[in-house]
From TrEMBL:
Superkingdom of the source species: Bacteria
Phylogenetic classification of the source organism: Bacteria, Pseudomonadati, Pseudomonadota, Betaproteobacteria, Burkholderiales
Record's protein name: ABM domain-containing protein
An example molecular function term from Gene Ontology annotations: catalytic activity
Species this chain originates from: Paraburkholderia largidicola
Any Pfam family matching the protein: ABM
Residue span, ABM domain: 4-92
Alphabetical list of Gene3D superfamilies matching this protein: 3.30.70.100
Length: 96
């Protein structure tokens, strides 16, 4: 088991920034309680307020996979799909 990090970026459609923000904020608490979650921090881009960025650390890829299948993430995906213009997920491991 080796720790992994994730950078997840979601860009709201114009006019849907606050709906997306509320939905993203709603998954922070439940996710931080998940087994294997080491860090789960939500940020907003200072220069592009439609862009939201999660910095995440997980105990393992298995923990991240379980997170992706969790009830609160599934509900978030269904609710927020209409507000998201683009999304990007980068899964990385620390090398130095």
């Amino acid at each position: 088991m080796s720790e992994i990090a994730v950078v997840a970026i979601s860009v709201a459609k114009p006019g849907h920034e606050e709906q997306l923000r509320a939905a993203l904020e709603g998954i922070v608490g439940p996710t931080r309680k998940e087994r294997g979650a080491l860090q789960y921090d939500l940020h907003r881009d200072l220069r592009e307020p439609r862009r939201f960025v999660f910095f995440e650390r997980w105990e393992s890829e298995e923990a991240l996979a379980a997170h992706a299948k969790s009830a609160h993430i599934e509900a978030y995906k269904k609710a927020s799909a209409q507000w998201i213009e683009s999304a990007e997920l980068r899964i990385v491991s620390k090398i130095a």
